[in-house]
Design a protein that fits this description.
By secondary structure, the chain is mainly α. It is built from 14 helices and four strands. A two-stranded parallel ribbon has the order 1-4. It has a two-stranded antiparallel sheet with strand order 2-3.
Protein backbone atom coordinates (compact mmCIF):
# COMPACT_ATOMS: atom_id res chain seq x y z
CA UNK A 1 0.00 0.00 0.00
CA UNK A 2 1.34 3.44 -0.95
CA UNK A 3 0.43 6.96 0.11
CA UNK A 4 -0.74 7.61 -3.45
CA UNK A 5 -3.25 4.77 -3.07
CA UNK A 6 -4.42 6.24 0.25
CA UNK A 7 -4.90 9.65 -1.37
CA UNK A 8 -6.92 8.04 -4.16
CA UNK A 9 -9.00 6.20 -1.54
CA UNK A 10 -9.74 9.47 0.28
CA UNK A 11 -10.51 11.29 -2.95
CA UNK A 12 -13.01 8.60 -3.93
CA UNK A 13 -14.77 9.25 -0.62
CA UNK A 14 -14.77 13.00 -1.29
CA UNK A 15 -12.51 14.04 1.55
CA UNK A 16 -11.69 17.74 1.39
CA UNK A 17 -8.32 18.78 -0.06
CA UNK A 18 -7.22 20.06 3.34
CA UNK A 19 -8.08 16.77 5.05
CA UNK A 20 -6.26 14.72 2.42
CA UNK A 21 -3.18 16.89 2.79
CA UNK A 22 -3.16 16.63 6.59
CA UNK A 23 -3.87 12.89 6.68
CA UNK A 24 -1.07 12.25 4.18
CA UNK A 25 1.39 14.21 6.34
CA UNK A 26 0.30 12.39 9.49
CA UNK A 27 0.65 8.95 7.90
CA UNK A 28 4.08 9.85 6.53
CA UNK A 29 5.06 10.93 10.03
CA UNK A 30 3.74 7.69 11.54
CA UNK A 31 5.91 5.53 9.27
CA UNK A 32 8.93 7.80 9.71
CA UNK A 33 8.73 7.65 13.50
CA UNK A 34 7.79 3.98 13.91
CA UNK A 35 9.43 2.18 10.99
CA UNK A 36 6.28 0.02 10.85
CA UNK A 37 5.59 -2.26 7.85
CA UNK A 38 3.27 -1.08 5.06
CA UNK A 39 0.34 -2.81 6.80
CA UNK A 40 1.00 -1.85 10.43
CA UNK A 41 -0.02 -4.06 13.36
CA UNK A 42 -2.45 -2.58 15.86
CA UNK A 43 0.17 -2.49 18.60
CA UNK A 44 2.43 -0.24 16.50
CA UNK A 45 -0.40 2.24 16.05
CA UNK A 46 -1.35 2.14 19.74
CA UNK A 47 2.28 2.59 20.83
CA UNK A 48 2.64 5.61 18.52
CA UNK A 49 -0.56 7.10 19.93
CA UNK A 50 0.78 6.69 23.47
CA UNK A 51 4.14 8.20 22.48
CA UNK A 52 2.37 11.32 21.22
CA UNK A 53 0.65 11.65 24.60
CA UNK A 54 3.99 11.23 26.38
CA UNK A 55 5.44 14.03 24.24
CA UNK A 56 2.77 16.41 25.46
CA UNK A 57 0.36 16.55 22.52
CA UNK A 58 -3.23 17.44 23.39
CA UNK A 59 -5.97 14.82 23.24
CA UNK A 60 -7.51 16.55 20.23
CA UNK A 61 -4.18 16.61 18.35
CA UNK A 62 -3.45 12.96 19.13
CA UNK A 63 -6.90 11.85 18.01
CA UNK A 64 -6.64 13.90 14.81
CA UNK A 65 -3.34 12.24 13.89
CA UNK A 66 -4.67 8.84 14.91
CA UNK A 67 -7.69 9.31 12.63
CA UNK A 68 -5.31 9.62 9.68
CA UNK A 69 -3.56 6.34 10.49
CA UNK A 70 -6.82 4.54 11.23
CA UNK A 71 -8.12 5.71 7.86
CA UNK A 72 -5.00 4.29 6.26
CA UNK A 73 -5.72 0.96 7.96
CA UNK A 74 -9.23 0.97 6.50
CA UNK A 75 -7.75 1.68 3.09
CA UNK A 76 -5.37 -1.29 3.51
CA UNK A 77 -8.24 -3.62 4.34
CA UNK A 78 -6.84 -3.88 7.86
CA UNK A 79 -9.60 -2.45 10.11
CA UNK A 80 -8.50 -4.70 12.97
CA UNK A 81 -5.25 -2.74 12.99
CA UNK A 82 -6.92 0.47 14.12
CA UNK A 83 -6.19 1.84 17.60
CA UNK A 84 -8.84 3.37 19.82
CA UNK A 85 -8.85 7.17 20.10
CA UNK A 86 -8.29 8.77 23.48
CA UNK A 87 -11.37 9.58 25.52
CA UNK A 88 -11.85 13.21 26.41
CA UNK A 89 -14.53 15.07 28.30
CA UNK A 90 -15.87 18.00 26.29
CA UNK A 91 -14.40 21.37 27.23
CA UNK A 92 -16.91 23.98 28.31
CA UNK A 93 -14.85 26.98 27.21
CA UNK A 94 -12.39 27.74 24.43
CA UNK A 95 -8.89 29.19 24.44
CA UNK A 96 -9.35 32.96 24.15
CA UNK A 97 -5.77 33.21 22.87
CA UNK A 98 -6.75 31.41 19.69
CA UNK A 99 -10.32 32.59 19.06
CA UNK A 100 -10.87 35.66 16.91
CA UNK A 101 -13.39 38.04 18.46
CA UNK A 102 -15.67 40.55 16.76
CA UNK A 103 -13.51 43.61 17.53
CA UNK A 104 -10.40 41.93 16.14
CA UNK A 105 -12.31 40.86 13.03
CA UNK A 106 -13.30 44.44 12.27
CA UNK A 107 -9.72 45.57 12.85
CA UNK A 108 -8.63 43.09 10.17
CA UNK A 109 -11.26 44.47 7.80
CA UNK A 110 -10.06 48.02 8.48
CA UNK A 111 -6.45 46.99 7.85
CA UNK A 112 -7.44 45.41 4.53
CA UNK A 113 -9.30 48.57 3.53
CA UNK A 114 -6.46 50.90 4.54
CA UNK A 115 -3.88 48.88 2.60
CA UNK A 116 -6.03 48.65 -0.52
CA UNK A 117 -6.49 44.88 -0.38
CA UNK A 118 -10.01 44.99 -1.82
CA UNK A 119 -10.21 41.30 -2.70
CA UNK A 120 -9.02 40.23 0.74
CA UNK A 121 -11.53 42.60 2.33
CA UNK A 122 -14.37 40.95 0.41
CA UNK A 123 -13.10 37.42 1.01
CA UNK A 124 -12.98 37.99 4.79
CA UNK A 125 -16.51 39.38 4.82
CA UNK A 126 -17.84 36.60 2.60
CA UNK A 127 -16.40 33.85 4.80
CA UNK A 128 -17.53 35.47 8.04
CA UNK A 129 -21.00 36.57 6.88
CA UNK A 130 -21.90 33.13 5.50
CA UNK A 131 -20.00 30.72 7.78
CA UNK A 132 -18.77 28.65 4.84
CA UNK A 133 -15.54 26.69 4.85
CA UNK A 134 -12.64 28.25 2.95
CA UNK A 135 -12.75 25.23 0.62
CA UNK A 136 -16.36 26.17 -0.22
CA UNK A 137 -15.54 29.70 -1.36
CA UNK A 138 -15.56 28.60 -5.01
CA UNK A 139 -19.33 28.02 -4.69
CA UNK A 140 -19.82 31.76 -4.26
CA UNK A 141 -20.35 32.39 -7.96
CA UNK A 142 -21.72 35.26 -10.01
CA UNK A 143 -24.86 33.18 -10.51
CA UNK A 144 -25.19 32.61 -6.75
CA UNK A 145 -24.83 36.33 -6.07
CA UNK A 146 -27.56 37.07 -8.62
CA UNK A 147 -29.87 34.48 -6.98
CA UNK A 148 -28.95 35.65 -3.46
CA UNK A 149 -28.27 32.05 -2.47
CA UNK A 150 -25.53 29.49 -3.03
CA UNK A 151 -25.59 25.71 -3.37
CA UNK A 152 -22.64 24.35 -1.38
CA UNK A 153 -21.33 20.85 -2.04
CA UNK A 154 -18.87 19.35 0.41
CA UNK A 155 -18.06 15.86 1.69
CA UNK A 156 -20.73 14.27 -0.49
CA UNK A 157 -23.46 16.54 0.88
CA UNK A 158 -25.20 19.55 -0.59
CA UNK A 159 -26.76 22.44 1.29
CA UNK A 160 -28.18 25.76 0.22
CA UNK A 161 -27.31 28.96 2.04
CA UNK A 162 -28.74 32.46 1.77
CA UNK A 163 -26.41 35.38 1.09
CA UNK A 164 -26.90 38.66 3.02
CA UNK A 165 -28.23 41.41 0.76
CA UNK A 166 -25.47 43.89 1.64
CA UNK A 167 -22.84 41.27 0.86
CA UNK A 168 -24.49 40.58 -2.52
CA UNK A 169 -24.40 44.28 -3.42
CA UNK A 170 -20.68 44.43 -2.70
CA UNK A 171 -20.01 41.23 -4.61
CA UNK A 172 -22.02 42.51 -7.58
CA UNK A 173 -19.89 45.66 -7.70
CA UNK A 174 -16.77 43.52 -7.49
CA UNK A 175 -17.93 41.29 -10.36
CA UNK A 176 -18.71 44.32 -12.49
CA UNK A 177 -15.25 45.83 -11.92
CA UNK A 178 -13.51 42.50 -12.53
CA UNK A 179 -15.70 41.65 -15.57
CA UNK A 180 -16.86 38.40 -13.95
CA UNK A 181 -20.14 37.27 -15.51
CA UNK A 182 -20.20 33.62 -14.44
CA UNK A 183 -18.37 31.15 -12.23
CA UNK A 184 -16.46 31.81 -8.99
CA UNK A 185 -16.31 35.41 -7.82
CA UNK A 186 -12.81 35.18 -6.35
CA UNK A 187 -10.08 34.31 -8.84
CA UNK A 188 -6.30 34.46 -9.09
CA UNK A 189 -4.55 36.42 -11.82
CA UNK A 190 -4.50 33.19 -13.84
CA UNK A 191 -8.28 32.91 -13.62
CA UNK A 192 -8.29 30.00 -11.16
CA UNK A 193 -10.45 29.89 -8.02
CA UNK A 194 -8.64 31.39 -5.04
CA UNK A 195 -7.02 28.66 -2.91
CA UNK A 196 -6.73 28.37 0.86
CA UNK A 197 -2.96 28.98 0.93
CA UNK A 198 -3.31 32.34 -0.83
CA UNK A 199 -6.16 33.37 1.47
CA UNK A 200 -4.18 32.29 4.53
CA UNK A 201 -1.15 34.35 3.46
CA UNK A 202 -3.25 37.43 2.70
CA UNK A 203 -4.91 37.21 6.11
CA UNK A 204 -1.58 36.85 7.93
CA UNK A 205 -0.26 39.92 6.11
CA UNK A 206 -2.88 42.05 7.87
CA UNK A 207 -2.04 40.98 11.44
CA UNK A 208 0.65 43.51 12.29
CA UNK A 209 -1.29 46.52 11.01
CA UNK A 210 -4.50 45.29 12.67
CA UNK A 211 -2.77 44.53 15.96
CA UNK A 212 -4.14 41.00 16.04
CA UNK A 213 -2.14 37.92 17.03
CA UNK A 214 -1.25 35.67 14.10
CA UNK A 215 -2.40 32.69 16.20
CA UNK A 216 -5.97 33.94 15.81
CA UNK A 217 -5.90 34.76 12.12
CA UNK A 218 -6.80 31.90 9.80
CA UNK A 219 -9.88 31.27 7.62
CA UNK A 220 -11.58 28.71 9.87
CA UNK A 221 -11.74 31.18 12.74
CA UNK A 222 -14.09 33.32 10.65
CA UNK A 223 -16.43 30.32 10.54
CA UNK A 224 -16.24 30.06 14.32
CA UNK A 225 -17.04 33.77 14.67
CA UNK A 226 -20.08 33.34 12.41
CA UNK A 227 -21.26 30.42 14.56
CA UNK A 228 -20.87 32.25 17.87
CA UNK A 229 -22.55 35.38 16.52
CA UNK A 230 -25.49 33.42 15.06
CA UNK A 231 -25.97 31.42 18.26
CA UNK A 232 -25.81 34.59 20.34
CA UNK A 233 -28.81 35.93 18.40
CA UNK A 234 -30.77 32.74 17.86
CA UNK A 235 -30.20 29.93 20.34
CA UNK A 236 -30.94 27.17 17.83
CA UNK A 237 -28.10 24.66 17.72
CA UNK A 238 -29.83 22.36 15.22
CA UNK A 239 -30.40 25.17 12.72
CA UNK A 240 -26.80 26.33 13.13
CA UNK A 241 -25.55 22.79 12.46
CA UNK A 242 -27.53 22.76 9.21
CA UNK A 243 -26.12 26.13 8.16
CA UNK A 244 -22.56 24.98 8.84
CA UNK A 245 -23.08 21.64 7.12
CA UNK A 246 -22.36 19.56 10.23
CA UNK A 247 -23.60 15.99 10.47
CA UNK A 248 -23.33 16.04 14.25
CA UNK A 249 -24.49 18.72 16.66
CA UNK A 250 -21.54 17.73 18.86
CA UNK A 251 -19.25 19.26 16.24
CA UNK A 252 -21.31 22.45 16.28
CA UNK A 253 -20.99 22.70 20.06
CA UNK A 254 -17.23 23.18 19.65
CA UNK A 255 -17.84 26.26 17.51
CA UNK A 256 -19.98 28.10 20.06
CA UNK A 257 -17.90 27.61 23.19
CA UNK A 258 -17.48 30.78 25.20
CA UNK A 259 -14.04 32.03 26.14
CA UNK A 260 -12.41 31.21 29.48
CA UNK A 261 -12.85 34.87 30.55
CA UNK A 262 -16.59 34.75 29.86
CA UNK A 263 -16.87 31.47 31.74
CA UNK A 264 -14.99 33.02 34.68
CA UNK A 265 -17.40 35.98 34.76
CA UNK A 266 -20.32 33.55 34.83
CA UNK A 267 -18.83 31.70 37.79
CA UNK A 268 -18.31 34.98 39.66
CA UNK A 269 -21.95 35.98 39.12
CA UNK A 270 -23.20 32.76 40.74
CA UNK A 271 -22.30 34.03 44.26
CA UNK A 272 -22.11 30.61 45.88
CA UNK A 273 -19.44 31.45 48.44
CA UNK A 274 -20.06 32.68 51.99
Amino acid sequence: MTLEAYRAWMQAREYSAGTMEKYSRDVERFFRETGAPSVPPKQAVADWRDSLVARGYSVASVNAMLAAVNGYQECCGNPQGKAKPLKCQHRVFCDAGRELNRVEYFRLLQAARETGHKRTLLVLQTLCATGIRVSELAYITAEAVHRRRAAIRCKGKCREILLPSQLCKRLERWCTRQHIHSGPVFLTRNGRPLDRVTIWKEMKALCKRAGVSEKKVFPHNLRHLFARTFYGIEKNLSKLADLLGHSSIETTRIYIMESGAEHQRLLERMHLLL
